[in-house]
Amino acid sequence: MIKNVVIIGLNYEYNIEIAQSVADSLEAYFLNGDEFVNYQLQNKKNMKELCGVEYLKAQENKAIKGCAEFENSIITIPSHYFLRDNQYKNFDNSLIIYIRFSKDKLTKQSKIGFVDEFIVPNLLTYAQKDLELEKLAKYIVNVRNKKKSTIEDEIKKCLEEYCEHK
Amino acid sequence: MNINKKCLNFLRAMSCEMITNANSGHPGVALGATEIMYALFKDHYFYDVKDHKFFPRDRFILSCGHASSLYYATAYMFNFGLGEDDLKSFRQLNSKTPGHPEYNTTNFVEVSTGPLGQGVANAVGMAIAETMVASRFNAQKYPVVDNYTYCLCGDGCLMEGVAQEAISLAGTLKLNKLILLYDCNKMTIDGNLNISNTENPVKKFKSMNWNVIVCKNGNNYYCVTRAIAKAKKSNKKPTVIIFKTTIGLNSKLAGSNLIHGNPLTLTDLDELKEKLNVTDPFKLPEDIKNHVIKTNERNNRLIEKWNNNFAVYQKAYPELYKKLASFMDNKPININHLLKQEQIDKEDYAMRDANHIILKELSSKMPRLVGGCADVALTTKAYIEDGGDFSCENRRGKNIHYGVREHSMGAICNGITLYLQSPSFCSTFLAFSNYMLSPIRMSAQMNIPSMFMFSHDNFRVGQDGPTHQCVEQLGELRLIPNLYVYRPCNMTELLACYDNALSNQSPSCFILSKEILKNQNNNFNDAKFGGYIISGDYGEVEILATGSEVELAQNVKSILEGQDIKVVVASFPCLEIFENQTEKYKNDILSRANFRVSLEASNDNIWEKYIGNNGLKFSIENFGKSAKQNDLEQYFKFIPSEIAKAIKKTVKK
Q1: Contacts of B225 in chain A (CB under 8 A)
Q2: What is the CA radius of gyration of chain B?
Q3: Which one of B110, B130, B406, B600 is the catalytic residue?
Q4: In terms of domains, do B600 and B510 share one?
């Protein structure tokens, strides 16, 4: 039995919208992983200044682990957190769905997890991240020219298919 | 700042400002339980802000009613219909935001709370009622009724016996839709909790067949919402979530008992607001309003889904829908024709037996009528024959076995009455009504039609002795405002009492004899006046009596009339109803003789105003003895010959 559904991808704001919508239609709880981490850490800038990057990273990792403790929820989490230091292992008993954007479509970088100066920097390229997420995800949903409602339906179909096989 | 954090800060600032403005209130819990209320309202509480009576809504009860400022602030934030002015008039005269939540004053408040622990029992009652309706009307794929009952309580609530009783019953009945949110700050008014209570709540609840979730960080919104989500998954047991919180969080006195009930000073309030980064707590910024809109949208989607499902249910299950409509209907009942005339005229009844007959007939006309006893059903006879016993295996049962739990029985009965919006009853001996004074009082304050039925109403209980013989109980009950105390003498009067009780929608106490009473020649319509002449017209002596003493008065009349003293007997099945009659009527009833005598087996002083300075009062002024009924009647001189002798002596003077 899966614990959660994790919707992952390289456009975090897009993922939030999709995941929230899927959660509403399934009457499941929606967890915004980035918001969760920020809530737990309260003031990351202060933490980095006072305690250093390594400490901040450790606290972020702890908070990411906290996300995985939810149950029966639809979770989004920035790929930046997901791929760092094998944090994806926290979600071993969750169903991972990768919403894939082609590189050319990612013209405006998602703000979250990339550009804040006081966040632990992410050093992977697009190709590396895409490869990693492809390996980790159970299902991949390609965004290319599709409406959001279509993406949501595809995600629900993935869930149905998964439940049938289980 | 994280939006959830911002909302929480605003809630804290709002609650404290309300308290400081009123110079009265309880900031401790308002600051400590903020995350619990916020998470509940934001993520879980199913409610229609446009229709506060939307039946399938979740129920929320604030058992720790002193957290009212937090409750109102949260309701304001989530658009429950309170305005800024309402918050600013917290604890002021005629405000919609009274010091403790009041049913009928604030439209989203489910029940008045304040006396600690009552709310827990009310919540159990609502959870019971939910299962009753669900079992009768839910169809596969169409749960017409499927709501949770949430109750926020504190350390104090759970120390009260009423809560302990209710929790025990809830575990026995496996009320899995009941979720107790326990704000465990381990602090009471007098200091640390362990100066008076060192029990282990986890073990306690588990022993009473509850699920227990411990939320170690009860001041972390995400931990709180996760815990509530987990609690909702229970399908066999009620759940308590023990939130470890800090009383008065963010204030100077955080963690101290001193913050419990002391408003923050203006300086402290300003410091708090600065710390929380809030300038004007009542002016919610746009980002918070937008954030809250998502919650309202969540609820609106669920409401729409329910409405759509209900429309399909109506078509798919037309018979069941018809029964549901009939179940919820409030059509008036013709009590006068409830029984056949021969049932009324034929026999002498003990009032507890007469009541049993009426309950059986009434339940067929009032499908929502349910009730129970505190382990004395076979003695008080207040159960619905063929109604079935309510249990976890039989949710359709109409008779609830409350166990020896009188106090919680009264409060649970109130919860059931509120949920079903229809009278529900509970019963025990009159001597044990003392356990239930608080819920009886609360029902009167809320003006809800709970029916409290008490048998074994006087010294004639006999050999059980003075602990079971009533003296002051009638007087105590009659002192409660808005409570109707009915003490009928026969089936006709009992029917009239029911007619009054069901039409006036206020709470009622039925005081029922254990002993068989001789039937009287009286009239239903006269009895409805609450006080009327039952025999005679005008005379030298007028005897005012109630219940069992009406027969005694009639016997006294026979003796005195044999001695050429004309006597009129007036029966008063309900003094409150009598007092509501016109002055002309009351004067007429009370002026059939110059010399009036009251006759009631209680010490209620109310009779002194009816008999006047020259009258004679026959009462029971002291505790009785363990003896047979006849011996006690001799002991108290409550026998016709003694009473007639005393009256004659006074009249002849």
Answers
A1: 29
A2: 28
A3: B406
A4: no
Mapped onto helix, strand or coil, the DSSP state of residue A125 is coil
Q: Number of residue pairs across A and B with CB atoms under 8 Å?
A: 33
**Ordered DSSP codes for B484-495:** EEE--SSHHHHH
pLDDT in tens, A98-114: 998 876 665 544 444 43
Which chain B residues touch A74 with a CB distance below 8 Å? none
Which residue in chain A is spatially nearest to B217 when comparing CA positions? A40
End-to-end alpha carbon distance in chain A: 8
CATH number of domain containing B595: 3.40.50.920
Query: In this structure, what is the dihedral angle of CA atoms B111, B115, B116, B118, given to the nearest 10 degrees?
Result: -50
Give the total number of structural domains in chain A. 1
pTM of the full structure: 0.91
Output the pLDDT for position A105: 60
- Pick from A39, A42, A71: which is nearest to B221 by CB? A39
DSSP state of B40: I
| CATH at residue A105 | 3.40.50.300
B46 in the same domain as B162: yes
Q: Is the dihedral of CA B628, B631, B634, B635 positive or negative?
A: negative
Of B2, B229, B301, the CB nearest to A39: B2
Last residue of one domain, picked from the residues B256, B284, B300: B300
What CATH number should be reported for the domain holding residue B355?
3.40.50.970
The reply to whether B406 belongs to the active site is: yes
- pLDDT per residue over B161-216, tens digit each? 999 999 999 999 999 999 999 999 998 899 899 899 999 999 999 999 999 999 99
Residue B420 structural domain: 335-517
Q: Predicted ipTM? A: 0.71
Evaluate whether residue B316 is within a structural domain: no
In whole angstroms, give the CA distance from residue B240 to residue B171: 11
Q: What is the dihedral of CA A12, A13, A19, A23, to 10 degrees?
A: 140
φ, ψ at B183 (rounded to 5°):
-80, 95
Q: Does A36 touch chain B (CB under 8 A)?
A: yes
Q: Within 10 Å of residue B235's Cβ, how many Cβ atoms? A: 8
Domain extent, residue A35, equals 4-165
3-state secondary structure of B368: coil
**How far does B548 lie from chain A, in Å, by closest CA?**
60
Query: Residue B80 corresponds to which tokens in the numbers above?
Result: 């429950």
Q: Which residues in A lie closer than 8 A to residue B9 (C-beta atoms)?
A: none
Who contacts B402 (Cβ-Cβ below 8 Å, separation ≥6)?
B169, B372, B373, B374, B375, B408, B409, B412, B426
Q: Which residues partner with B42 through β-bridges?
A: none
